[in-house]
Protein backbone atom coordinates (compact mmCIF):
# COMPACT_ATOMS: atom_id res chain seq x y z
CA UNK A 1 0.00 0.00 0.00
CA UNK A 2 1.25 3.48 -0.84
CA UNK A 3 2.01 5.58 2.21
CA UNK A 4 -0.50 8.34 2.81
CA UNK A 5 2.16 11.04 3.13
CA UNK A 6 3.60 10.37 -0.34
CA UNK A 7 0.43 11.23 -2.25
CA UNK A 8 -1.05 14.61 -3.06
CA UNK A 9 -4.50 15.17 -1.52
CA UNK A 10 -7.54 14.68 -3.72
CA UNK A 11 -9.69 17.81 -3.51
CA UNK A 12 -13.36 16.95 -3.17
CA UNK A 13 -15.95 19.62 -3.75
CA UNK A 14 -18.23 21.08 -6.38
CA UNK A 15 -16.06 19.89 -9.27
CA UNK A 16 -16.56 16.32 -10.46
CA UNK A 17 -14.06 13.71 -9.37
CA UNK A 18 -12.18 11.72 -12.00
CA UNK A 19 -11.71 7.97 -12.21
CA UNK A 20 -8.08 8.59 -11.28
CA UNK A 21 -9.19 10.44 -8.13
CA UNK A 22 -11.35 7.51 -7.09
CA UNK A 23 -8.53 5.00 -7.62
CA UNK A 24 -5.99 7.20 -5.80
CA UNK A 25 -8.12 7.36 -2.67
CA UNK A 26 -9.62 3.87 -2.82
CA UNK A 27 -6.59 1.83 -3.82
CA UNK A 28 -3.60 3.99 -2.86
CA UNK A 29 -4.83 5.79 0.28
CA UNK A 30 -4.47 9.32 -1.09
CA UNK A 31 -5.79 11.80 1.49
CA UNK A 32 -8.84 13.93 0.75
CA UNK A 33 -9.37 17.63 1.34
CA UNK A 34 -12.65 19.55 1.19
CA UNK A 35 -13.07 22.79 -0.73
CA UNK A 36 -14.46 25.84 1.12
CA UNK A 37 -17.00 26.48 -1.64
CA UNK A 38 -18.50 23.03 -1.24
CA UNK A 39 -18.84 23.43 2.53
CA UNK A 40 -20.57 26.78 1.93
CA UNK A 41 -22.98 25.06 -0.49
CA UNK A 42 -23.76 22.49 2.21
CA UNK A 43 -24.54 25.24 4.72
CA UNK A 44 -26.89 26.93 2.24
CA UNK A 45 -28.86 23.78 1.48
CA UNK A 46 -28.97 22.88 5.15
CA UNK A 47 -30.80 26.11 5.83
CA UNK A 48 -33.53 24.93 3.44
CA UNK A 49 -33.86 21.62 5.30
CA UNK A 50 -33.98 23.38 8.68
CA UNK A 51 -36.83 25.58 7.43
CA UNK A 52 -38.76 22.52 6.25
CA UNK A 53 -38.13 20.78 9.54
CA UNK A 54 -40.00 23.58 11.29
CA UNK A 55 -42.96 23.30 8.89
CA UNK A 56 -45.97 21.40 10.30
CA UNK A 57 -46.63 20.01 6.78
CA UNK A 58 -44.93 16.65 6.01
CA UNK A 59 -41.83 16.64 3.78
CA UNK A 60 -40.37 13.34 2.60
CA UNK A 61 -37.04 12.48 4.15
CA UNK A 62 -37.27 15.38 6.58
CA UNK A 63 -40.42 14.76 8.60
CA UNK A 64 -41.75 11.45 7.24
CA UNK A 65 -40.85 7.80 7.23
CA UNK A 66 -39.15 6.18 4.24
CA UNK A 67 -40.04 4.00 1.30
CA UNK A 68 -43.50 2.51 1.79
CA UNK A 69 -43.76 4.51 5.06
CA UNK A 70 -43.38 7.85 3.30
CA UNK A 71 -46.90 8.95 4.29
CA UNK A 72 -46.19 8.59 8.02
CA UNK A 73 -45.55 11.98 9.68
CA UNK A 74 -42.86 11.98 12.39
CA UNK A 75 -42.99 14.51 15.24
CA UNK A 76 -39.93 16.73 15.53
CA UNK A 77 -38.77 15.28 18.86
CA UNK A 78 -38.59 11.83 17.27
CA UNK A 79 -36.68 12.73 14.11
CA UNK A 80 -33.18 12.18 15.45
CA UNK A 81 -34.34 8.70 16.41
CA UNK A 82 -35.84 8.34 12.92
CA UNK A 83 -32.45 8.95 11.27
CA UNK A 84 -30.67 6.64 13.69
CA UNK A 85 -33.26 3.91 13.18
CA UNK A 86 -32.95 4.29 9.41
CA UNK A 87 -29.21 3.66 9.45
CA UNK A 88 -29.42 0.79 11.93
CA UNK A 89 -32.25 -1.01 10.13
CA UNK A 90 -30.74 -0.58 6.68
CA UNK A 91 -27.31 -1.89 7.74
CA UNK A 92 -28.61 -5.36 6.95
CA UNK A 93 -25.83 -6.77 4.79
CA UNK A 94 -24.81 -10.39 4.86
CA UNK A 95 -22.02 -12.57 3.55
CA UNK A 96 -18.28 -12.06 3.13
CA UNK A 97 -16.62 -8.70 3.69
CA UNK A 98 -16.28 -6.49 0.64
CA UNK A 99 -12.75 -5.47 -0.37
CA UNK A 100 -11.22 -2.44 1.33
CA UNK A 101 -10.76 -0.52 -1.92
CA UNK A 102 -14.44 -0.91 -2.79
CA UNK A 103 -15.54 0.43 0.59
CA UNK A 104 -13.18 3.39 0.33
CA UNK A 105 -14.44 4.13 -3.18
CA UNK A 106 -18.08 4.20 -2.12
CA UNK A 107 -17.22 6.37 0.92
CA UNK A 108 -15.41 8.87 -1.30
CA UNK A 109 -18.25 9.02 -3.80
CA UNK A 110 -20.85 9.54 -1.07
CA UNK A 111 -18.64 12.32 0.29
CA UNK A 112 -18.54 13.86 -3.18
CA UNK A 113 -22.33 13.91 -3.40
CA UNK A 114 -22.61 15.45 0.08
CA UNK A 115 -20.28 18.24 -1.03
CA UNK A 116 -22.47 19.18 -3.99
CA UNK A 117 -24.78 20.83 -1.48
CA UNK A 118 -27.79 19.06 -2.92
CA UNK A 119 -28.42 16.59 -0.06
CA UNK A 120 -29.17 19.04 2.75
CA UNK A 121 -26.64 17.50 5.13
CA UNK A 122 -24.53 19.69 7.46
CA UNK A 123 -20.84 20.30 6.73
CA UNK A 124 -19.88 18.25 9.79
CA UNK A 125 -21.19 15.13 8.04
CA UNK A 126 -18.78 15.60 5.14
CA UNK A 127 -15.94 16.51 7.47
CA UNK A 128 -16.48 13.31 9.44
CA UNK A 129 -16.44 11.14 6.31
CA UNK A 130 -13.23 12.83 5.16
CA UNK A 131 -11.64 12.25 8.55
CA UNK A 132 -12.57 8.56 8.50
CA UNK A 133 -11.05 8.14 5.04
CA UNK A 134 -7.88 9.98 6.02
CA UNK A 135 -7.53 7.90 9.19
CA UNK A 136 -7.57 4.72 7.11
CA UNK A 137 -10.65 3.39 8.92
CA UNK A 138 -12.73 1.06 6.74
CA UNK A 139 -16.26 0.07 7.78
CA UNK A 140 -17.08 -3.61 7.39
CA UNK A 141 -19.46 -3.92 4.42
CA UNK A 142 -20.94 -7.21 3.27
CA UNK A 143 -21.40 -8.86 -0.13
CA UNK A 144 -25.20 -9.00 -0.12
CA UNK A 145 -27.77 -6.32 0.66
CA UNK A 146 -27.96 -3.97 -2.31
CA UNK A 147 -30.55 -4.15 -5.09
CA UNK A 148 -29.11 -1.11 -6.82
CA UNK A 149 -32.22 0.97 -6.07
CA UNK A 150 -32.62 3.10 -3.96
CA UNK A 151 -28.94 2.91 -4.68
CA UNK A 152 -26.61 0.76 -2.63
CA UNK A 153 -28.64 1.03 0.55
CA UNK A 154 -27.17 -1.69 2.75
CA UNK A 155 -23.49 -1.10 1.86
CA UNK A 156 -23.83 2.65 2.40
CA UNK A 157 -25.73 2.04 5.63
CA UNK A 158 -22.86 0.01 7.07
CA UNK A 159 -20.58 2.98 6.35
CA UNK A 160 -23.03 5.40 7.95
CA UNK A 161 -23.31 3.08 10.96
CA UNK A 162 -19.56 3.32 11.47
CA UNK A 163 -19.72 7.12 11.23
CA UNK A 164 -22.16 7.24 14.14
CA UNK A 165 -19.88 5.02 16.22
CA UNK A 166 -21.62 1.68 15.80
CA UNK A 167 -20.72 -1.57 14.07
CA UNK A 168 -17.34 -3.10 13.17
CA UNK A 169 -14.53 -1.51 11.15
CA UNK A 170 -10.99 -2.31 10.06
CA UNK A 171 -8.28 0.08 11.14
CA UNK A 172 -5.37 1.15 8.94
CA UNK A 173 -3.49 -2.05 9.84
CA UNK A 174 -6.47 -4.23 8.95
CA UNK A 175 -7.36 -5.14 12.52
CA UNK A 176 -11.08 -5.53 13.21
CA UNK A 177 -12.30 -3.14 15.91
CA UNK A 178 -15.51 -1.52 17.06
CA UNK A 179 -16.21 1.72 15.28
CA UNK A 180 -16.41 3.64 18.53
CA UNK A 181 -12.91 2.51 19.56
CA UNK A 182 -11.41 3.20 16.13
CA UNK A 183 -12.96 6.66 15.92
CA UNK A 184 -11.78 7.51 19.42
CA UNK A 185 -8.23 6.37 18.62
CA UNK A 186 -8.26 8.65 15.57
CA UNK A 187 -9.74 11.59 17.48
CA UNK A 188 -12.98 11.58 15.47
CA UNK A 189 -16.26 12.36 17.21
CA UNK A 190 -19.14 10.06 16.17
CA UNK A 191 -21.85 11.78 14.16
CA UNK A 192 -25.19 12.64 15.72
CA UNK A 193 -27.57 12.72 12.80
CA UNK A 194 -30.25 15.36 12.29
CA UNK A 195 -33.18 15.59 9.87
CA UNK A 196 -32.55 14.22 6.38
CA UNK A 197 -28.95 13.19 7.11
CA UNK A 198 -29.44 9.47 7.54
CA UNK A 199 -31.17 9.35 4.20
CA UNK A 200 -28.48 11.51 2.60
CA UNK A 201 -25.82 9.00 3.66
CA UNK A 202 -27.38 5.86 2.20
CA UNK A 203 -29.29 6.83 -0.95
CA UNK A 204 -26.83 6.58 -3.84
CA UNK A 205 -25.16 4.45 -6.51
CA UNK A 206 -21.72 4.91 -5.00
CA UNK A 207 -20.85 1.24 -4.53
CA UNK A 208 -21.52 0.24 -8.12
CA UNK A 209 -19.89 3.41 -9.48
CA UNK A 210 -16.77 2.92 -7.36
CA UNK A 211 -16.40 -0.61 -8.64
CA UNK A 212 -16.87 0.62 -12.22
CA UNK A 213 -14.02 3.10 -11.75
CA UNK A 214 -11.75 0.38 -10.35
CA UNK A 215 -12.72 -2.05 -13.11
CA UNK A 216 -11.98 0.42 -15.89
CA UNK A 217 -8.57 1.09 -14.36
CA UNK A 218 -7.77 -2.62 -14.24
CA UNK A 219 -8.98 -3.14 -17.79
CA UNK A 220 -6.73 -0.37 -19.08
CA UNK A 221 -3.80 -2.59 -18.11
CA UNK A 222 -5.35 -5.87 -19.18
CA UNK A 223 -6.60 -4.90 -22.65
CA UNK A 224 -3.13 -3.75 -23.67
CA UNK A 225 -1.66 -6.91 -22.18
CA UNK A 226 -4.13 -8.95 -24.26
CA UNK A 227 -2.57 -7.40 -27.38
CA UNK A 228 0.83 -8.51 -26.10
CA UNK A 229 -0.19 -12.09 -25.36
CA UNK A 230 -1.96 -12.30 -28.73
CA UNK A 231 1.22 -11.12 -30.46
CA UNK A 232 3.26 -13.69 -28.51
CA UNK A 233 0.87 -16.41 -29.66
CA UNK A 234 1.01 -15.26 -33.29
CA UNK A 235 4.77 -15.56 -33.07
CA UNK A 236 4.71 -18.93 -31.29
CA UNK A 237 2.30 -20.36 -33.87
CA UNK A 238 4.31 -19.10 -36.86
CA UNK A 239 1.50 -16.71 -37.70
CA UNK A 240 1.62 -13.65 -39.91
CA UNK A 241 1.63 -10.00 -38.93
CA UNK A 242 0.32 -8.88 -42.33
CA UNK A 243 -3.38 -8.80 -41.27
CA UNK A 244 -2.48 -6.03 -38.83
CA UNK A 245 -1.23 -3.67 -41.55
CA UNK A 246 -2.44 -0.05 -41.24
CA UNK A 247 -4.05 0.09 -44.68
CA UNK A 248 -6.11 -3.03 -43.93
CA UNK A 249 -7.24 -1.66 -40.59
CA UNK A 250 -8.20 1.65 -42.20
CA UNK A 251 -10.80 -0.18 -44.27
CA UNK A 252 -12.80 -0.67 -41.07
CA UNK A 253 -11.97 2.47 -39.12
CA UNK A 254 -12.91 1.60 -35.57
CA UNK A 255 -10.36 3.43 -33.41
CA UNK A 256 -10.09 0.62 -30.87
CA UNK A 257 -9.38 -1.97 -33.55
CA UNK A 258 -6.73 0.24 -35.09
CA UNK A 259 -5.10 0.75 -31.70
CA UNK A 260 -4.98 -2.99 -31.00
CA UNK A 261 -3.53 -3.75 -34.45
CA UNK A 262 -0.90 -1.06 -34.03
CA UNK A 263 0.07 -2.50 -30.65
CA UNK A 264 0.49 -5.95 -32.16
CA UNK A 265 2.58 -4.63 -35.07
CA UNK A 266 4.88 -2.80 -32.66
CA UNK A 267 5.21 -5.78 -30.35
CA UNK A 268 6.05 -8.11 -33.26
CA UNK A 269 8.53 -5.72 -34.91
CA UNK A 270 11.93 -7.30 -35.41
CA UNK A 271 10.74 -10.86 -34.80
CA UNK A 272 13.08 -13.45 -36.24
CA UNK A 273 10.35 -16.05 -35.86
CA UNK A 274 7.84 -14.10 -37.96
CA UNK A 275 10.49 -13.27 -40.57
CA UNK A 276 11.49 -16.92 -40.88
CA UNK A 277 8.30 -17.89 -42.70
CA UNK A 278 7.79 -14.68 -44.65
CA UNK A 279 9.10 -16.50 -47.71
CA UNK A 280 7.81 -17.72 -51.07
CA UNK A 281 7.75 -21.34 -49.94
CA UNK A 282 5.26 -20.62 -47.11
CA UNK A 283 2.02 -22.26 -48.26
CA UNK A 284 -0.29 -21.07 -45.47
CA UNK A 285 -2.79 -18.49 -46.72
CA UNK A 286 -4.61 -17.45 -43.55
CA UNK A 287 -4.19 -17.80 -39.80
CA UNK A 288 -6.99 -18.97 -37.52
CA UNK A 289 -9.49 -16.40 -36.34
CA UNK A 290 -8.11 -16.33 -32.80
CA UNK A 291 -4.87 -14.95 -34.28
CA UNK A 292 -6.01 -12.96 -37.28
CA UNK A 293 -9.04 -11.36 -35.62
CA UNK A 294 -7.42 -10.50 -32.29
CA UNK A 295 -7.52 -6.72 -32.97
CA UNK A 296 -11.21 -6.88 -33.83
CA UNK A 297 -12.11 -8.39 -30.45
CA UNK A 298 -9.68 -6.27 -28.42
CA UNK A 299 -10.87 -3.21 -30.32
CA UNK A 300 -14.49 -3.96 -29.50
CA UNK A 301 -13.51 -4.28 -25.84
CA UNK A 302 -11.93 -0.83 -26.07
CA UNK A 303 -15.13 0.59 -27.57
CA UNK A 304 -17.13 -0.90 -24.72
CA UNK A 305 -14.72 0.62 -22.23
CA UNK A 306 -15.04 4.03 -23.91
CA UNK A 307 -18.82 3.89 -23.49
CA UNK A 308 -18.44 2.83 -19.87
CA UNK A 309 -16.02 5.71 -19.21
CA UNK A 310 -18.55 8.15 -20.65
CA UNK A 311 -21.25 6.82 -18.31
CA UNK A 312 -18.85 6.94 -15.37
CA UNK A 313 -18.03 10.56 -16.20
CA UNK A 314 -21.70 11.52 -16.08
CA UNK A 315 -22.14 9.69 -12.78
CA UNK A 316 -19.07 11.28 -11.21
CA UNK A 317 -20.59 14.68 -11.98
CA UNK A 318 -23.94 13.72 -10.45
CA UNK A 319 -25.62 14.46 -7.13
CA UNK A 320 -27.47 11.23 -6.38
CA UNK A 321 -29.92 11.49 -3.50
CA UNK A 322 -33.66 11.50 -2.85
CA UNK A 323 -35.06 13.98 -2.11
CA UNK A 324 -32.62 16.63 -3.31
CA UNK A 325 -32.32 20.31 -2.49
CA UNK A 326 -32.45 22.19 -5.80
CA UNK A 327 -30.46 25.29 -6.64
CA UNK A 328 -33.56 27.46 -6.22
CA UNK A 329 -34.30 26.05 -2.77
CA UNK A 330 -36.93 23.39 -3.47
CA UNK A 331 -36.80 19.90 -1.96
CA UNK A 332 -37.91 17.44 -4.60
CA UNK A 333 -38.30 13.69 -4.85
CA UNK A 334 -36.67 12.13 -7.91
CA UNK A 335 -35.41 8.84 -9.33
CA UNK A 336 -31.70 9.56 -9.76
CA UNK A 337 -30.78 6.78 -7.33
CA UNK A 338 -31.84 4.12 -9.85
CA UNK A 339 -28.69 2.29 -10.89
CA UNK A 340 -29.66 1.32 -14.45
CA UNK A 341 -27.11 3.55 -16.25
CA UNK A 342 -24.24 2.04 -14.29
CA UNK A 343 -25.65 -1.48 -14.17
CA UNK A 344 -25.93 -1.71 -17.94
CA UNK A 345 -22.30 -0.84 -18.62
CA UNK A 346 -21.09 -3.12 -15.82
CA UNK A 347 -22.91 -5.97 -17.53
CA UNK A 348 -21.64 -4.88 -20.94
CA UNK A 349 -18.05 -4.95 -19.67
CA UNK A 350 -18.54 -8.46 -18.28
CA UNK A 351 -19.57 -9.62 -21.77
CA UNK A 352 -16.48 -8.01 -23.31
CA UNK A 353 -14.19 -9.51 -20.66
CA UNK A 354 -15.60 -12.99 -21.23
CA UNK A 355 -15.04 -12.78 -24.99
CA UNK A 356 -11.50 -11.43 -24.68
CA UNK A 357 -10.62 -14.31 -22.34
CA UNK A 358 -12.36 -16.82 -24.60
CA UNK A 359 -10.20 -15.84 -27.58
CA UNK A 360 -7.08 -16.05 -25.42
CA UNK A 361 -7.99 -19.57 -24.30
CA UNK A 362 -8.42 -20.66 -27.94
CA UNK A 363 -4.87 -19.56 -28.68
CA UNK A 364 -3.60 -21.47 -25.64
CA UNK A 365 -5.28 -24.64 -26.86
CA UNK A 366 -3.88 -24.17 -30.37
CA UNK A 367 -0.29 -23.93 -29.07
CA UNK A 368 -0.70 -27.22 -27.20
CA UNK A 369 -2.21 -29.23 -30.07
CA UNK A 370 0.44 -30.79 -32.37
CA UNK A 371 -2.12 -30.94 -35.19
CA UNK A 372 -2.36 -27.13 -35.22
CA UNK A 373 0.83 -25.81 -33.61
CA UNK A 374 3.10 -26.16 -36.67
CA UNK A 375 5.84 -28.25 -35.20
CA UNK A 376 5.63 -27.70 -31.46
CA UNK A 377 5.66 -30.81 -29.23
CA UNK A 378 2.31 -31.98 -27.84
CA UNK A 379 1.33 -29.80 -24.87
CA UNK A 380 4.82 -28.28 -25.04
CA UNK A 381 5.96 -31.28 -23.00
CA UNK A 382 9.66 -31.86 -22.33
CA UNK A 383 9.50 -35.65 -22.83
CA UNK A 384 6.27 -36.51 -24.60
CA UNK A 385 4.43 -39.32 -22.84
CA UNK A 386 6.35 -39.03 -19.60
CA UNK A 387 5.55 -35.33 -19.23
CA UNK A 388 2.14 -33.69 -19.65
CA UNK A 389 3.56 -30.21 -20.15
CA UNK A 390 0.91 -27.50 -20.03
CA UNK A 391 -2.03 -29.80 -20.76
CA UNK A 392 -3.88 -29.00 -17.54
CA UNK A 393 -3.01 -25.30 -17.66
CA UNK A 394 -5.37 -25.20 -20.64
CA UNK A 395 -8.01 -26.98 -18.55
CA UNK A 396 -7.65 -24.25 -15.96
CA UNK A 397 -8.04 -21.54 -18.59
CA UNK A 398 -11.04 -23.33 -20.07
CA UNK A 399 -12.67 -23.64 -16.65
CA UNK A 400 -12.19 -19.93 -16.01
CA UNK A 401 -13.62 -19.00 -19.41
CA UNK A 402 -16.65 -21.17 -18.76
CA UNK A 403 -17.21 -19.29 -15.52
CA UNK A 404 -16.75 -15.94 -17.28
CA UNK A 405 -19.47 -16.88 -19.76
CA UNK A 406 -21.81 -17.51 -16.84
CA UNK A 407 -20.83 -14.17 -15.31
CA UNK A 408 -21.58 -12.48 -18.63
CA UNK A 409 -25.30 -13.13 -18.11
CA UNK A 410 -26.66 -9.66 -17.27
CA UNK A 411 -27.70 -8.88 -13.73
CA UNK A 412 -29.50 -5.73 -14.83
CA UNK A 413 -32.31 -7.61 -16.58
CA UNK A 414 -33.44 -8.97 -13.23
CA UNK A 415 -35.62 -7.09 -10.78
CA UNK A 416 -37.04 -8.17 -7.44
CA UNK A 417 -39.65 -5.71 -6.08
CA UNK A 418 -39.10 -4.52 -2.53
CA UNK A 419 -40.45 -2.19 0.17
CA UNK A 420 -44.04 -3.38 -0.10
CA UNK A 421 -44.00 -2.74 -3.87
CA UNK A 422 -43.05 0.93 -3.48
CA UNK A 423 -39.68 0.05 -4.97
CA UNK A 424 -41.13 -2.14 -7.68
CA UNK A 425 -38.25 -2.02 -10.16
CA UNK A 426 -34.59 -2.25 -9.17
CA UNK A 427 -31.32 -2.24 -11.14
CA UNK A 428 -29.25 -5.00 -9.51
CA UNK A 429 -26.24 -2.83 -10.36
CA UNK A 430 -24.31 -3.86 -7.24
CA UNK A 431 -24.51 -7.49 -8.36
CA UNK A 432 -23.38 -6.50 -11.85
CA UNK A 433 -20.36 -4.81 -10.26
CA UNK A 434 -19.52 -7.78 -8.06
CA UNK A 435 -19.54 -10.26 -10.93
CA UNK A 436 -17.44 -7.92 -13.08
CA UNK A 437 -14.74 -7.86 -10.39
CA UNK A 438 -14.67 -11.66 -10.48
CA UNK A 439 -14.57 -11.65 -14.28
CA UNK A 440 -11.61 -9.26 -14.39
CA UNK A 441 -9.67 -11.51 -12.04
CA UNK A 442 -10.44 -14.46 -14.33
CA UNK A 443 -9.27 -12.53 -17.40
CA UNK A 444 -5.93 -11.78 -15.75
CA UNK A 445 -5.47 -15.47 -15.00
CA UNK A 446 -6.27 -16.57 -18.55
CA UNK A 447 -3.93 -13.96 -20.04
CA UNK A 448 -1.24 -15.11 -17.61
CA UNK A 449 -1.61 -18.69 -18.81
CA UNK A 450 -1.42 -17.52 -22.42
CA UNK A 451 1.72 -15.48 -21.74
CA UNK A 452 3.33 -18.44 -19.98
CA UNK A 453 2.36 -20.84 -22.77
CA UNK A 454 3.51 -18.55 -25.58
CA UNK A 455 6.81 -17.82 -23.82
CA UNK A 456 7.51 -21.53 -23.52
CA UNK A 457 6.55 -22.05 -27.16
CA UNK A 458 8.89 -19.20 -28.20
CA UNK A 459 11.79 -20.90 -26.50
CA UNK A 460 11.03 -24.11 -28.38
CA UNK A 461 11.40 -22.22 -31.70
CA UNK A 462 15.10 -21.62 -31.03
CA UNK A 463 17.40 -20.81 -32.72
CA UNK A 464 14.78 -18.49 -34.22
CA UNK A 465 14.62 -15.37 -32.08
CA UNK A 466 11.46 -13.64 -30.84
CA UNK A 467 10.97 -9.92 -31.23
CA UNK A 468 12.70 -7.74 -28.63
CA UNK A 469 9.30 -6.87 -27.15
CA UNK A 470 7.93 -10.40 -26.89
CA UNK A 471 11.29 -11.52 -25.56
CA UNK A 472 10.99 -8.90 -22.83
CA UNK A 473 7.49 -10.15 -22.02
CA UNK A 474 8.79 -13.70 -21.70
CA UNK A 475 11.69 -12.55 -19.53
CA UNK A 476 9.28 -10.78 -17.17
CA UNK A 477 7.84 -14.21 -16.30
CA UNK A 478 11.27 -15.54 -15.31
CA UNK A 479 11.58 -19.27 -14.74
CA UNK A 480 7.79 -19.61 -14.53
CA UNK A 481 7.65 -19.92 -18.33
CA UNK A 482 10.79 -22.00 -18.75
CA UNK A 483 10.48 -25.36 -20.54
CA UNK A 484 11.65 -28.55 -18.89
CA UNK A 485 10.40 -31.65 -17.09
CA UNK A 486 7.02 -31.42 -15.39
CA UNK A 487 6.92 -29.48 -12.12
CA UNK A 488 4.31 -28.20 -9.70
CA UNK A 489 2.43 -25.93 -12.11
CA UNK A 490 0.05 -23.93 -9.90
CA UNK A 491 2.74 -21.52 -8.62
CA UNK A 492 3.81 -20.79 -12.20
CA UNK A 493 0.22 -20.00 -13.18
CA UNK A 494 -0.27 -17.75 -10.15
CA UNK A 495 2.99 -15.91 -10.82
CA UNK A 496 2.12 -15.36 -14.48
CA UNK A 497 -1.35 -14.10 -13.56
CA UNK A 498 0.18 -11.71 -11.02
CA UNK A 499 2.64 -10.40 -13.62
CA UNK A 500 -0.31 -9.66 -15.92
CA UNK A 501 -2.53 -8.17 -13.21
CA UNK A 502 0.10 -5.82 -11.81
CA UNK A 503 1.16 -4.63 -15.27
CA UNK A 504 4.61 -6.18 -15.06
CA UNK A 505 4.29 -7.89 -18.45
CA UNK A 506 3.00 -4.73 -20.08
CA UNK A 507 5.73 -2.60 -18.47
CA UNK A 508 8.42 -4.98 -19.77
CA UNK A 509 7.13 -4.60 -23.32
CA UNK A 510 6.71 -0.83 -23.03
CA UNK A 511 10.32 -0.56 -21.88
CA UNK A 512 11.21 -1.76 -25.39
CA UNK A 513 8.58 -0.19 -27.67
CA UNK A 514 7.27 2.72 -25.62
CA UNK A 515 3.70 3.24 -24.33
CA UNK A 516 1.04 1.06 -25.92
CA UNK A 517 -2.37 2.35 -26.91
From TrEMBL:
Gene3D superfamilies: Fumarase/aspartase (Central domain), Fumarase/aspartase (N-terminal domain)
Catalytic reaction list: L-histidine = trans-urocanate + NH4(+)
GO molecular function: histidine ammonia-lyase activity
Chief place where the protein resides: cytoplasm
Name of the molecule in the record: Histidine ammonia-lyase
Enzyme class, broadest EC rank: lyase
Signal peptide start and end residues: none
PROSITE patterns assigned to the protein according to its UniProt record, in alphabetical order: PAL_HISTIDASE
PANTHER family noted in UniProt: HISTIDINE AMMONIA-LYASE (PTHR10362)
Classification via NCBIfam families: hutH, PRK09367.1
The organism's taxonomic lineage, starting at the top: Bacteria, Bacillati, Actinomycetota, Actinomycetes, Micrococcales
Family matches, as InterPro entries: Aromatic_Lyase, Fumarase/histidase_N, HutH, L-Aspartase-like, Phe/His_NH3-lyase_AS
Localization per Swiss-Prot or TrEMBL: Cytoplasm
Keywords: Histidine metabolism, Lyase
GO cellular component, one term: cytoplasm
Keyword Lyase: yes
Pfam families to which the protein is assigned, alphabetical: Lyase_aromatic
Entry EC no(s): 4.3.1.3
Pathway: Amino-acid degradation; L-histidine degradation into L-glutamate; N-formimidoyl-L-glutamate from L-histidine: step 1/3
